[in-house]
Amino acid sequence: MWTLIQQIFPYAIVFTIPLLITALGGLFSERSGVVNIGLEGLMVVGSFIGALVIFKLQAAWPGNPFILWIGLLAAMAAGVLFSLLHAFASINLSANQVISGTAINMIAGALTIFLARNITGSGNVRITSGFLPFDVPVLSSIPIIGDLLFTKTYPTTWLILLVVLLSSFMLNKTAFGLRLRACGEYPQAAEAAGVNVRRMRYIGVMISGAFSALGGAVFIVTFAGEFNGTVAGLGFLALAALIFGQWRPFGVLAATLFFGIASTLANVSQVIPSLAVIPPFILKVFPYVITLIALVLFSKSSQAPKAAGEAFDSGKR
Amino acid sequence: MRNMVISLLAVVFGLLAGALLMVVTGHNPMEGYKYLFEGGLKNPERIGNTLATGTPLIFTGLAVAFAFRTGLFNIGAAGQMLFGGFCATAVGLNLDAARPILLLAMAIAGFAGGALWAFIPGLLKAKFNVHEVVSTIMMNWIAYWTIYYAVPAYLKGEYLETESRALPPAASLREAFLSEWFGGSYVNLGLFLAVIVVIIIAFIINKTTVGYELKAVGFNRYAAEYAGIAVNRSIILSMVISGGLAGLGGVAQYAGNASNIQIGSLPSQGFDGIAVALLGANSPVGVLLAAIFFGLLYSGRGFMNAMTDIPPEIADSIIAIIIYFAATSILMERFARWFMKRRLSARLDADGRKGE
């Protein structure tokens, strides 16, 4: 049993990280009052731009270690630009945010493959090499924790965990965080207190674009290795994790880790005898069914931002 | 009228954006559109294929539009369509009956399967106020994995693990005389079913008490409740009918356009249904027209791809951009108003000059 956990855990973390950063992006957007169902599309954009930039640069300068980081940055920039479409529609034009997000998903899915086909012909973009897993010196020799948390880790994992910490601090302990949350709870009151609601919402959506795109790019450089037009529903799973984590950074961390472990178990169940007795179907639908159940359980005490999904009307009381 | 202008403007802008994309990627847009439309309309066979491609979109578009009338956003048409199609395929492969009875049984099974898949989100919405967008997304993935394991287990094909056995001719919606009319196209009875269903749904929405109640809940659920309408029942009923329509879309797709069901993908028609409903302004006739227009783009793209080197995904891109423009209808309205004003002032100017 122990060896099983020990084997699975590093993979579960690798799977968790893109999910985590994407859900965290969604958290900023929804906390500012804009529902962002386009996380999946923003991830696709990030995975495409990340893969493309890395592919081009690796061809030009083979073996340069900074290329992967440049790819991640480029993906974030592209994510911010793309999320502006959603921000403009839902903040300036008072469009239905769910429909706008759906449009984002569809545009991202179609446009990236269209461009990839123009560039590579096949529509796939394969990077030569991604990040290599490493054991953290010293820490990995700690018994138990060392094996679980500090072996076979990626640099991006640590970066993103740091971002989670910072985000939690920023949301709960700074004036900026308070203003952002106010815009998602009661924007009219926030405006009366002198907060520029539209600007805060723009910031929230742009952060969600940057983080989701980073998630998509991390997905490429850690385990996918190739852009092929989708991120396999990870963006939607991140949306579920956001609700499951009740719109709090550490709640989201726990929820995504849970999904990461559940999905990894489902993926490896066939080769591990003690898991092969459970029908794979049960393992595969487990995260989704659990989310449905959680939605029911939380329905009475939901911590959802109250104004999320509503267009801001400054005169409404 | 206003809706129609906005939809047409969205289409125009979508096509313009598509042209821009072609230019940016170094293709000739005039040539691209010429082959795109020729590919969908050139001869009876291609027209038939356009109609057939549009058929499942009519159902999924109607499904999304119907739920939208009750204020529900059914984003799970893909899962409902998949599960409905699976139920219909299971009936078609296992039931031995005369053709009309068999086809009827398949349609009922498809409707019931889709309805069941949408009943759960409807129930969760009515009883626990769980947002239907999230629950239907979850149901989509549950459908995906259900089909992924159920098809190989129960309906496995002869050669491939990834698809079901092919339906026998008696269980297919294809009809020899229709294919002959349309020069060998795969247009099928699904199209007639779709037109009948459009009429029925238009009747339900516009002429019946049930439809009135559903719409009332969509406008303001509290006012509807105050007026004595059973809001929770209406929400569940609306979702069930919506899911059933998407399930029929599965029948049209898997037993009409295709002859078996494949695993490993959620049908794109489910998501395109959102686009169809939006472009059709949630009215049944609008949905019909929008679905056929999207069918045209989808069926013409192959020909365009064969004649030029423009990737076929241009059609998907255009559709996605059209929804974005339809979603930002205020932008369209502003544009229309600005355009009208400019024309009006131009005319006034002209009149003024005449007067001098």
Account of the 3D structure:
Chain A: InterPro entries: ABC_transp_permease (IPR001851). Chain A: This is ABC transporter permease. The complex is a heterodimer of chains A (317) and B (356). Helices cover 71% and strands 1% of the residues of chain A. Chain A has 317 residues and is mainly alpha-helical. The termini of chain A are far apart. By secondary structure, chain B is mainly alpha-helical. Chain B has a domain at 54-290. Chain B has 15 helices and no strands. Chain B has helices at residues 2-24, 29-41, 44-69, 77-94, 99-128, 132-154, 176-181, 190-207, 209-219, 221-226, 231-257, 268-279, 284-307, 313-327, 329-355. Chain B is globular. Classes of the chains: A mainly alpha (317), B mainly alpha (356).
Descriptors:
heterodimer; A: 317 residues; mainly alpha; two-stranded antiparallel sheet; 13 helices; B: 356 residues; cell membrane (chain A); ABC transporter permease (chain A); membrane (chain A); transmembrane (chain A); transmembrane helix (chain A)
SSE blueprint:
The complex is a heterodimer of chains A (317) and B (356).
Chain A (H helix, E strand, L loop, with lengths): L1 H30 L7 H22 L6 H26 L4 H24 L4 E2 L18 H5 L5 H19 L1 H11 L1 H6 L4 H28 L1 E2 L6 H11 L4 H20 L4 H4 L3 H19 L19
Antiparallel strand pairs in A: 1-2
Helix pairs in contact in A: 1-6, 1-9, 1-10, 1-11, 2-3, 2-4, 2-9, 2-10, 3-4, 3-9, 6-7, 7-9, 10-11, 10-13, 11-13
Chain B lengths: L1 H23 L4 H13 L2 H26 L7 H18 L4 H30 L3 H23 L21 H6 L8 H18 L1 H11 L1 H6 L4 H27 L10 H12 L4 H24 L5 H15 L1 H27 L1
Protein name (chain A): ABC transporter permease
Membrane topology (chain A): Multi-pass membrane protein
Organism (chain A): Paenibacillus abyssi
